[in-house]
């Protein structure tokens, strides 16, 4: 056991939320000092980080990550996925429940929680399944998962929709007891049988079965009314259509306790990309039209959409490098999310860096009820969960060189703005000088 005090850091000239430069000292896991450049006391031996021009944000929090372990370690493990998260500037992720076995018992959510702690890259908060085996027929042990060491507060059958309205009502009622939230994957199953992509002009021209916007919107409309009826909290996963934004806007105006997320890919990519039948663009919900992209950007800017969540969905090559109809749905996102938000929302003047902190850290932490530890203000004494970004850098994206174990990024071959220079989890550098650490101190695998 080491008796040396943990490494301290001083970030020179960092710009919190993109504002005026300060020096920030990280020591003993917290923000130990913060002030005008050259005015703060720096502990002996502190590691100096030249943060000139770099934006300092609270560590990013993802409400929607697929880590694939247990069950599909060929796609991703808790270790590889959380290391990718750190590389992308995250300090906490919520791990979706569609593992094998399903995260539908206290035992499985505790297993994933412990794997996250052992890996040490980010805080891992398992999402609990709403129904046993994601089967949509019987409620899972929500209370036992909430009471477990993993303290589950977010419940979702993501990948599947809780389409039975009676079960959805019961789940919404049940989670109130422990201030939980049901995160719905809104997809009416009968309207999307065999669906391969967005239903519209492109699907008609290239002959793939379409997935109508109404299949998403009808479930969201039903669920906001159910949430209102039982006085519970609802979260809408990855909404993707202009109509969905309108429904959430209406529900919020009515005082319904609903929050919503959009993925980075739905902020920029459209169904036109399906024309070459490259399955890297096959995703659930599907890429929509340019008008939908504009509507979700507007919804994110005006606060109708609360957060950006990655829906990081790694798949091994054999599940993506095949014919469109046989390929798996999903794309990776942890290492590109911040860049896409910068490109689509900040560089276009629609959002400030303080807004980015809200949608990628503060609000997801609050929705997941982890906001006593994550998504905190950049202020004296707060936990040193921080992300340092160079917004002037550009990166060429290549799925083969990313940290995630899977290569299915839809941004391969593109240049994106912004680069994560450093990530700190309770004062430990998981990323430093633009490089992700080789092995986390205390990691056991
Ligand atoms: Zn989903």
Second rung of CATH, namely the architecture of the largest domain: Alpha-Beta Barrel
The biggest sheet amounts to: 9 strands, mixed
Number of strands: 19
Number of domains: 2
Mean pLDDT: 96
Succession of helices and strands = EEEEEEHEHEHEHEEHEHEHEHEHHHEEEE
Describe the structure.
The protein has 445 residues and is an alpha/beta fold. The chain has two domains: 9-56 and 380-393 and 415-436, Urease, subunit C, domain 1, CATH 2.30.40; 59-367, Metal-dependent hydrolases (TIM Barrel, Alpha-Beta Barrel). The protein is built from eleven helices and 19 strands. The strands form four sheets. Strands 1, 2, 3, 4, 5, 16, 17, 18 and 19 form a nine-stranded mixed β-sheet that branches. A five-stranded parallel β-sheet has the order 9-10-13-14-15. The model has no long low-confidence stretch (mean pLDDT 96). Zinc ion (ZN) binds next to loops. Zinc ion binds at residues 158-159, 185, 237-238, 284.
Throw out a few tags for this protein.
alpha/beta; TIM Barrel; 445 residues; 27% helix; single chain; 9-stranded mixed beta sheet; Urease, subunit C, domain 1; 11 helices; binds zinc ion; 5-stranded parallel beta sheet
């Amino acid at each position: 056991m080491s008796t040396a005090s943990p490494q301290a850091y001083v970030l020179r000239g960092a710009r919190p939320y993109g504002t005026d430069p300060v020096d920030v000292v990280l020591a003993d896991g917290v923000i130990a000092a913060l002030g005008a450049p050259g005015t703060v006391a720096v502990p002996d031996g502190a590691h100096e980080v030249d943060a000139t021009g770099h934006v300092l944000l609270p560590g990013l929090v993802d409400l929607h990550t697929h880590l694939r372990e247990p069950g599909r370690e060929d796609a991703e493990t808790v270790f590889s996925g959380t290391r990718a998260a750190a590389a992308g500037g995250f300090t906490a992720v919520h791990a979706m429940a569609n593992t094998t076995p399903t995260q539908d018992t206290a035992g499985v959510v505790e297993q994933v929680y412990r794997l996250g702690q052992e890996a040490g890259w980010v805080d891992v908060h398992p999402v609990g399944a709403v129904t046993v085996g994601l089967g949509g027929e019987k409620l899972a042990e929500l209370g036992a998962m909430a009471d477990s060491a993993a303290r589950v507060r977010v419940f979702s059958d993501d990948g599947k929709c809780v389409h039975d309205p009676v079960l959805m009502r019961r789940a919404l009622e049940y989670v109130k007891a422990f201030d939980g939230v049901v995160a719905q994957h809104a997809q009416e199953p009968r309207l999307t049988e065999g669906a391969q992509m967005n239903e519209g002009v492109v699907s008609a021209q290239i002959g793939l079965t379409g997935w109508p916007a109404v299949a998403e919107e009808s479930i969201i409309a039903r669920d906001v009314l159910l949430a209102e009826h039982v006085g519970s909290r609802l979260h809408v996963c990855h909404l993707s259509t202009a109509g969905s934004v309108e429904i959430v806007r209406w529900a919020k105006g009515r005082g319904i306790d609903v929050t919503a997320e959009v993925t980075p890919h739905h902020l920029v990519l459209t169904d036109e990309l399906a024309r070459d039948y490259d399955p890297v663009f096959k995703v659930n919900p599907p890429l929509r039209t340019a008008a939908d992209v504009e509507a979700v950007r507007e919804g994110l800017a005006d606060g109708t959409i609360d957060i950006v969540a990655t829906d990081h969905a790694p798949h091994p090559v054999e599940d993506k490098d095949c014919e469109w109809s046989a390929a798996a749905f999903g794309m990776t996102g942890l290492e590109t999310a911040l860049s896409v938000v910068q490109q689509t929302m900040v560089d276009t003047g629609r959002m400030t860096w303080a807004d980015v902190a809200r949608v990628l850290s503060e609000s997801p932490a609050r929705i997941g009820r982890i906001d006593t530890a994550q998504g905190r203000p950049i202020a004296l004494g707060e936990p040193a969960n921080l992300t340092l970004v160079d917004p002037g850098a550009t990166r060429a994206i290549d799925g083969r060189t990313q940290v995630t174990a899977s290569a299915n990024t839809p941004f391969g071959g593109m240049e994106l703005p912004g680069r994560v220079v450093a990530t700190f989890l309770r004062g430990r550098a998981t990323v430093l000088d633009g490089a992700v650490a080789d092995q986390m101190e205390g990691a056991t695998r």
